[in-house]
Specification:
Distance between the termini: 32 Å
Largest sheet: none
Number of domains: 1
Number of helices: 3
Order of helices and strands: HHH
Helix content: 40-55%
Structural class: mainly alpha
Radius of gyration: 18 Å
Number of strands: 0
Strand content: under 5%
Length: about 100
């Protein structure tokens, strides 16, 4: 990591003076459209998977409660839809 700044003329690196806000943009799910009912969010995740996305980073305002709810309500729907699409040959099976 020491060499990271070597490519800029000041030898500091292009992100050395950046704030957290410069590097991470909080968007409440609007940009990814991961908002709505658990079914709607799962459908959107599946659409991303069809495009080749294999990792979705999420953030939650009330982390404990919302993360648990996401795991309990959205993830099972995503897994079910993945299995259905894998059977049809549209998606690779989860974990493949």
């Amino acid at each position: 990591m020491q060499e990271a700044g070597a490519s800029t003329s000041d030898k500091k690196g292009m992100w050395a003076d950046s704030s957290f806000e410069d590097l991470v943009q909080y968007n409440d799910g609007f940009r990814t459209q991961l908002i709505g009912t658990p079914e709607q969010v799962a459908d959107r995740i599946i659409e991303y998977k069809k495009l080749g996305v294999d990792l979705v980073l999420t953030a939650f305002l009330h982390f404990q409660e919302e993360l648990e709810a996401f795991g309990r309500t959205v993830i099972p729907i995503v897994r079910e839809k993945e299995a259905e699409l894998a059977e049809k040959g549209i998606l690779l099976p989860a974990g493949a």
